[in-house]
Amino acid sequence: MKRPLRTLFVASEAYPLIKTGGLADVAGYLPLALHDLGVEVTVVLPAYAHVLEQVKARVIAYVSTIRGYALIRETRLPNSKVRLWLVDHPLFAERPGNPYLNEEGEEWPDNAIRFGLFNQALAQLLAGKTAITRKFDIVHCHDWQTGLLPVYMHQEQLVTPTVFTIHNLAYQGIYPATMHGELKLPLSSWSHDGVEFHHMLSFIKGGLVYADRITTVSPTYADEIKRDEFGYGLSGLLLYRSDDLIGIINGIDTKTWNPATDPLIAEQYDVKRLDLKVENKLALQRATGLPHDPAVMVLGNVGRMVEQKGIDIILDALPELVKLPVQIVIEGTGESRFEARLAEAMSRWPDKVGGLVGYDEPLAHLIEAGADAFLMPSRFEPCGLNQMYSQAYGTLPIVYPTGGLRDTVVDATEQTLTEGAATGFYMDSLGKPGLYRAVVEALNLYADKAAWRRMQVTAMQQDFSWEHSAKEYLKLYQMLSRSAE
To answer: CATH assignment of 6-251+466-484, given 3.40.50.2000, 3.20.20.70, 3.40.47.10, 3.90.220.20?
Structure first.
């Protein structure tokens, strides 16, 4: 019997052990889904202090790095059978708090060294320079923090196929050129065709140049990053590697985000009990101090208050939106200027605008369950999660069709409504007028209760499970593995 495919899954964070963003969800859930498909996955993370506090991990090896020795510890991802390796070095283990930022919110000044040694240690491990003898069929790297691993593997003349996944091209890991020597990278990698980027060292370029295949978290984003406006200076390289670049949409945790079993909402429901959804609207109105009205259309938004997410577009549109027969509930934290504007809006229109400056998990779930539509006017969105959560809850997303939003939301057109395929609404332009027109379009359809119900049911029946993503990655792994034989 042929042994299962072995994948080393390398990331800088993974849910539930350490999380700052969507990368952690991918590294926490995708390995579980791959395991269920028969892949033997080994996840590897830095041994941050916070991670070591949560697990008991035995030492299985030690490895030489550019900053002394590191221990390799072994345990399992919590509540799973998936193997977890931790690279235990004082630069990770003896530093509490955020994995990337200090208490002032600034990047740790030695991040290049920290993640450089993480990559180098793993290359040494893969090259057989530790007590670990396990061989892998695929090495799967995630985001800039792992971008140098394919470079170090090339230095070690390793032929194990590599996959590098871009989660957000805006974050690239760019450091002074002197770091190239400090990290003991091969001299041949210092060129425009290597890791050099405008006379700086770019971690992400390591992955983009040296990995065998590049993936990103949605098909549309894979196309967008080959264009200058989305490419952050790397569009030419990504265009050059087009044949090796694919987009695979992320999944969502369908156990946590399921209105039929969600313990954080006021009333559980599903497609057969969709009438119960209104109880969550009433609970949301009570929680946010809005007038109790089961008939009014409620627009929700949960997210980081930064320009990428288009929160400024929503805030700019409020003076016009409040004139419509709608209520708006917003929850989020981020830039202080946007937080202040939300607080002002809630004070100015207390009967129309409610929410929270901050983040509260139960309220986030209640917004998804209690709103009728979800506002998501992102300027760019590699994948996005809330539009998938919203559809699972029968809350129809209103989005600007970029990245993963285009790939996961079907616009309500005459044709898609007739075919029963529509699951949301596209803005026709990015800005206040485009958002306003999309809300009016949704409001008009909301008046047709039968049509709105059909859209809700279609949205709730979409498959956004991690199993779907895992099957796509398994096909990629198998193809690379066969080509390496």
So the answer is: 3.40.50.2000
